[in-house]
Specification:
8-stranded parallel beta barrel, lyase, 17% strand, decarboxylase, 10 strands, aromatic amino acid biosynthesis, TIM Barrel, 260 residues, Indole-3-GlycerolPSynthase_CS
């Protein structure tokens, strides 16, 4: 079993437990369930924003502990002030040290789109994402069939959530394209073996149909990379570790964007 298989196996058990603890009706009664979501597109393309989707990530299977002191409210507010187009908040606890409460806290403190970063395998998690205050959900092609992507994306759209599809190679991209997707993210990290290469974004960009927003994800650590990725058509840049590994991630982003 590779790490992705392990995460998915664990996630299935977690979702089964969550379904018993909190019913769909209770989720729909949440304070955020009926809120109007922000448009991912509007914020990504806004002239006064950077295109950066800034991530709050305490640890990861590939890096171990990245930052276990940073506070989600403070950091996400600083990210937003520094010009983030959206926030990405890990809600997976076991492998990434995230909490569902982190997402709620980020939502409460900010007025830009928030991505629920998790391994979505079940409709329940989509409804839960809306209840927690998310604007965007992530669907990872490597762990979903085309039929599952279609179904989860349609549900997300019906809840007015924006949908980001993550792919790692051309085969995943071609089999997963769906009209309910808003954005395609090319992950520069292979989640099965953790190898990273920004070249992956350059290789896949021309294959992304023009109606979708184009995002480059992971292993971005300098502003020149963003400038180069913009030239070939990328509009969004998902950055986690480069900020989170600093004692003050918000400050780190503030310094970083000076180079853009
Ligand atoms: O920390 P990085 O290398 O800047 O990467 C951020 C983000 O792309 C990465 O955390 C990520 C991309 N896809 C995921 C899927 C699940 C969990 C995490 C991820």
């Amino acid at each position: 079993m590779n790490i992705l298989d392990k995460i998915v196996a664990h996630k299935k058990r977690e979702v089964d437990r969550d379904k018993r603890e909190t019913t769909y009706i209770e989720l729909e009664e949440s304070e955020y369930f009926h809120r109007e979501t922000y448009s991912f597109r509007d914020f990504l393309l806004a002239e006064d924003r950077t295109g950066i989707i800034a991530e709050f990530k305490r640890k990861s299977p590939s890096k171990g502990i990245i930052n276990d002191e940073a506070l989600v409210k403070e950091v996400t507010k600083q990210y937003a002030d520094a010009g983030a187009s959206a926030l990405s908040v890990l809600t997976d606890r076991n492998f990434f040290g995230g909490r569902k409460l982190d997402l709620k806290r980020a939502r409460r403190a900010n007025t830009i789109p928030v991505l629920r970063k998790d391994f979505m395998i079940d409709e329940y998690q989509i409804v839960e994402a809306k209840a927690l205050g998310a604007d965007i959900i992530l669907l990872i092609a490597a762990i979903l069939t085309p039929a599952e992507i279609k179904n989860l994306a349609a549900l997300a759209k019906s809840l007015e959530l924006n949908v980001l599809l993550e792919v790692h190679n051309l085969e995943e991209l071609e089999r997963s394209i769906d009209t309910n997707l808003d954005a395609i993210g090319v992950n520069n990290r292979n989640l099965a073996d953790f190898t990273v290469s920004v070249q992956n974004s350059y290789d896949l960009v021309e294959h992304i149909p023009s109606e979708f927003l184009k995002i480059s994800e992971s292993a971005i650590s300098d502003t020149q990379t963003i400038k180069d990725l913009k030239k070939v058509g990328f509009q969004g840049f998902l950055i986690g570790e480069n900020f989170m590994k600093q004692a003050d991630p918000g400050k780190a982003m503030q310094e970083f964007v000076k180079g853009l």
